[in-house]
From TrEMBL:
It catalyses: D-fructose 6-phosphate + L-glutamine = D-glucosamine 6-phosphate + L-glutamate. It comes from the Bacteria. Residues 43-182, 215-356 form the SIS domain. This is Glutamine--fructose-6-phosphate aminotransferase [isomerizing]. GO terms for molecular function: carbohydrate derivative binding; glutamine-fructose-6-phosphate transaminase (isomerizing) activity. The gene is glmS.
């Protein structure tokens, strides 16, 4: 049932190229520059008239929501807020019928997310679900939605659910952008053609697994790790840290790279591995200067760079290259080595990768 893999998590990491294709298949026609999503198309006026989109979710799905915020604001120019469902539901939030709430949940059963949906509905908001499990409570409770077609995710650490959630959110952002006239037909076509290349690029990344494993072997005994990224890759830094915490029980924190100097920099010494996402677009020069700051404090730098990078290579202790793509789509690639890294570290430490202690696959209690 693990399809020849040692763990469900590894199987699911490797299923991502297919899962992403399954998620966009039938929804985008790249050469024609068309996106079809019934859940959006049937309620287009609501989306076009929305004053604000509020994304609610927990855990990894919340990280996907943050990527969604960057995508929707960048392309569709609709204001977006992202909230932990647990905070949203209890803080008497201001929600009106002019708001759209997007609830993201792999399982579709997360108690806090479900309660946030009920609250938003009671205040008149239109609620859209992004779920993986068909017919789940959240899928049923929402007014409309788009499924991720990731297939069953068994490993407690979410992997393919995350990348397929980002795929759906990318399509939503591009669709709304083109409807609003923020994106020309030819630009939409270009983006979709690049999206179509993502699964092959993920496939290529999965092949550098040995390199990631070597890095895992070097840092597996670390007590603390930092993950840094900017822009679209700031949420990926959070997600990288969560993956490591969950399955290897190593303390890790994700930060926007520029926040480092507002506190976490004090932690840096020669024992501190710092994973930095430094792809060639998205404030590259600024990330390079963040890396220099780490270097001058003797921190160990593991950088995720774009193929062909030379600048970061000179300073970092290790580099992992990702193929070139649109900046907005880089989270779909930068996430992969971080998933593999956590996986290998957890295996090397002898942890229960698929069922980490204290965690449940779906959190149906608040
Ligand atoms: O099923 P959901 O997406 O609603 O679950 C949300 C979180 O419980 C979940 O993402 C959790 O953080 C994962 N274990 C992360 O790997």
């Amino acid at each position: 049932e693990k399809g020849g893999y040692d763990h469900f998590m590894l199987k699911e990491i490797h299923e991502q190229p297919k899962a992403i294709v399954d998620t966009y298949r039938g929804r985008m026609l790249p050469d024609e520059g068309i996106i079809r999503m019934a859940g959006i198309d049937n309620h287009m006026n609501k989306f076009l008239n929305a004053e604000r989109i509020i994304i609610v979710a927990c855990g990894t799905s919340w990280h996907a929501g943050l990527v969604g915020e960057y995508l929707i604001e960048e392309f569709a120019r609709i204001p977006v807020e992202v909230e932990y469902a647990s905070e949203f539901r209890y803080r008497n939030p201001i929600v009106t019928s002019k708001d759209i709430v997007i609830a993201i949940s792999q399982s579709g059963e997360t108690a806090d997310t479900l309660a946030a949906i009920k609250l938003a509905k009671s205040k008149g908001a239109f609620v859209f679900g992004v779920c993986n499990v068909v017919g789940s409570s959240i899928a049923r409770e929402t007014d409309a939605g788009a499924y991720t077609h990731a297939g069953p995710e068994i490993g407690v650490a979410s992997t393919k659910a995350f990348t397929t959630q980002i795929t759906v959110l990318s399509l939503i952002a591009l669709k709304l952008a083109s409807k609003k006239g923020e994106l020309s037909k030819s630009d939409l076509r270009t983006y979709l053609q690049k999206m179509q290349l993502i699964p092959t690029k993920v496939e290529a990344l999965l092949k550098i697994d040995n390199k990631v494993k070597e890095i895992a072997a070097v840092y597996k005994n670390a007590k603390n790790c930092l993950y840094l990224g900017r822009g679209f890759n700031f949420p990926v830094a959070l997600e990288g840290a969560l993956k490591l915490k969950e399955i290897s029980y190593i303390h890790a924190e994700g930060y926007p790279a520029a926040e480092m100097k507002h506190g976490p920099i004090a932690l840096i010494d020669e024992n501190m591995p710092i994973f930095v996402i430094a792809t060639n677009k998205g404030h590259y020069e600024k990330v390079v200067s963040n890396i220099q700051e780490i270097k001058s404090r003797a921190g160990k730098i593991i950088a995720i760079v774009t193929e062909g990078d030379t600048q970061v290579k000179e300073i970092a202790d290790h580099v992992i290259e990702i193929p070139e793509t649109e900046e907005a789509f880089t989270p779909l690639l930068t996430t992969i080595p971080l998933q593999l890294l956590s996986y290998h570290i957890a295996v090397m430490l002898g942890k229960n990768v698929d069922q980490p202690r204290n965690l449940a696959k779906s959190v149906t209690v608040e």
